[in-house]
Amino acid sequence: MATTRIPLSASEEASRSLEERLNLSTAEIGLTVRTTNCLEERGIFTVRDLLQTTRDDLLSISNFGEKTLEEVFKALEAIQFPRPVRENRSPK
Fold it and tell me: Which residue numbers delimit the RNA polymerase alpha subunit C-terminal domain (predicted)?
């Protein structure tokens, strides 16, 4: 299967299998070039890599802030990965 850097339509994305979606490169999920470059500089090349990275690790990347994090969450939602839920920890 040939890969493309052009984002696919929502219906095309929804029909992909889980494994195919996990193996998509960060460049294929509709992120800006700047965001993709930030992730790749940190060694995050696929959706699988991205899902294994914590929010704090992402925010520790140079030039990666809340707006960029929101862009990542929206791109993941577009390929059927739900937004991570923040844990509400109560003080002991």
Answer: 15-77
